[in-house]
Write a structure and sequence with these properties.
The chain has 147 residues and is of the alpha+beta class. It has one domain (3-144): Hotdog Thioesterase (Thiol Ester Dehydrase, Chain A, Roll). It has helices at 3-19, 56-72, and strands spanning 28-33, 36-42, 78-89, 97-107, 112-119, 125-139. A six-stranded antiparallel β-sheet has the order 1-2-4-5-6-3. It is globular.
């Protein structure tokens, strides 16, 4: 695949992410690169649990999504699926922008390994995670926002 085709693939993957109803509210941004992805989420009270910080479910989603799109950056014909994911939470976050960085750490024909980290507005680690992913049978095509 040419560099131009790879960059187009990454742009289309970002479109898949943003076309999802859970991500299309204008409060998230994504950049997909070679074996990596970066996702930014504007913190707002709609993400908070009762104690006034971002709920861990939203932090997990950032971790999984960053790892997932890093993995899918090197698979250009089908959607990947998360097989498993492990998370370690370090600290709460309640303001600013959360930034998730995901990267592929290993890949075989059938399984991809990726890890990610979420940083708060001060650059401190909120959580880390790692997961395994596999190619699915779901084609990357316009029906899933890949356009």
């Amino acid at each position: 695949m040419s560099e131009t085709d790879r960059q187009e693939h990454w742009r289309k993957l970002a479109g898949v992410y943003l076309s999802s109803p859970t991500n299309g509210d204008g409060r998230t941004r994504i950049e997909v690169m070679d074996r990596a992805a970066k996702i930014e989420l504007d913190v707002h009270e709609g993400l908070f649990h009762a104690a006034g910080a971002v709920h861990g479910g939203h932090v997990f989603k950032l971790l999984d999504d960053a790892s997932f799109f890093a993995a899918n950056s090197i698979i250009d014909d089908v959607f990947v699926l998360t097989l498993s994911y492990t998370v370690q939470f370090m600290r709460p976050a309640s303001e600013g922008v959360l930034v998730a960085h995901g990267k592929v750490t290993n890949a075989s024909k059938r399984v991809l390994w990726a890890e990610s980290e979420v940083l708060d507005a001060t650059g401190k680690t909120v959580a880390r995670g790692s997961g395994t992913f596999m190619p699915s049978r779901i084609a990357l095509d316009p029906s899933i926002g890949y356009e």
